[in-house]
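Can anyone check this?
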Amino acid sequence: MTIETIKILAAISSIIGSGILAYRVTGILSALTLVANCHEVNIQQLMPNNKGDIHYFANAPKHVEKAQKKTLLITGFIFLIASGILQLIALMMANS
């Protein structure tokens, strides 16, 4: 393989890994936001000055459990690590 090919593979790995991690982190943050908002509403309903309707939010922890799947996170990190290794190989090839 040529240095240019290795650099291109490193860039592609970096883009794929970053995209996967961004997608996964967005999912985790949306699940945590949902649970935090549900928790806040439940606390407000327990306050003595609450005169509104009572809302029951079921299955909020289910969203967090769904967001805890680690496959995409691990895949994203593997692509980023591969990118770093490929960049190191290209650098070593260029200097020899």
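Reply from J.R.: I decoded it. The mean pLDDT is 86.
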